[in-house]
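pinned: reference chain
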Amino acid sequence: MEQPLFNESAQPAESVTALAPDYPPKYNPPAEPQQVWLKSIISLAAYLLMGYYIFPSYKILLVITAVVMIHELGHFLAMKAYRYNDLGIFFIPLLGAYVSGTKREVSQKQSAVILLAGPLPGMLIGTAMLLIDQANPGFYLLGIPYYKVAGFFILLNLINLLPVYPLDGGQLLNRVFLDEESLFSKVFVLLSIALLGWFAWSLYSFSKNPVFFLLMALPITMLFRSFGDHKLDAVEKRIEEAGINADTEYEDLPDADYWKIRNILIETHPSFKDMPAAPPFEFCEKEDKIMAAIQSLLHRHLIQDVSVTGKILLFLLWAAGLAAPWLLGMELNFFSGQ
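pinned: its C-alpha cells
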C-alpha cells in the first residue's frame, strides 16, 4: 500500500516548538565592585590585632607578618603570571593567609610552580640570612638577631611544605601525585582533617589558652566542606544522566541548562529542598547560593602535564625543602641562641 505524502496526524513544526518551555535568562546578579584589596587590608588588620595579644613582642609579630606576606606574594605573583582572575591576599588570625584566585583550566605544572612559589623563596631568604649571620654575627632586624629572623623564615615555610592538606605540601601531593577525584585523595584529606584537629586540641590542652581553641575552626570547616562535596557527587551524576554539558563556563551555560540543574539541586541537595522547582521560573532568596553551587558543579580542567621525570624532580625539590634545617645544620635549640 502506498504511503501518503502528507500525514494528517502530524503536527506542524511550529506547534512542536511551542510545546517546549520558554526558559528565562539564568541568574546574573548585578555586578558590584569586588573591593578585593579593601577586604585584604581589613583581614590584615584583624590578623595584627589578634597577633598582638598572642605574641610576646610586637617586633616578633611584625617579622612573622612579613614572613607570611612574602610567602603569599610568591603565590600571588605566580598566579598572576599564569593569568588567574579575581586575585586577592586574605589573612586569617592564628592560621596565616591565603591567595584567592580563579581559573578554569588548571595545569599540574602550573599548580606545582604556584604552590612552591610560596615556601621556597622564604626558605632561600632564611638560608641567606643564616649564612650572613654565621659569616658576620651581630646583624639585627627590628632588634631581633638575624639568626632568629632566619629561623622564622625557615620554620614557617617548612611547616607549609608538610604533606598535610591544605598546606602547600599537602596540596602539591594531592594535585600532582594523587588523583584529586580518587579514593586515595579523599582518604588523604580526611586524614589531614583528623591530624589538624588533633594538633589544635593538643595545642589548646597544652597552653590552656582559649584563643588556640579557635584553631579547631579549620578542621571543622574542612569536614563540612568534605560532606558538602560528597552531596554534590549525587548532583553531578544526575546532571550527567540528564545529558547536560557541565564542561563550560557559567557565562556560556545555556539558560535551559541553568534551570534544569537548578531543579536537580532542589531534588537532591538538602540545602535547597525547601525551594519550589521550576516552572514557574522565578528566582528566590537563595538564588545566590544556587548560582554558586551551579558554578562549583561546572567542571574544572586539570591538565595532566607532569611526566614521571617531572614528578621525581618535584619530589626531590620538595624533599630538599623539608630537609633544609638539617642540611643547614640547624639544631633543636636554634631559637634559644645557645
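why pinned: The chain has two domains: 35-176+320-338, 178-306. Strands lie at 85-92, 96-102, 105-107, 140-141, 144-145, 301-303.
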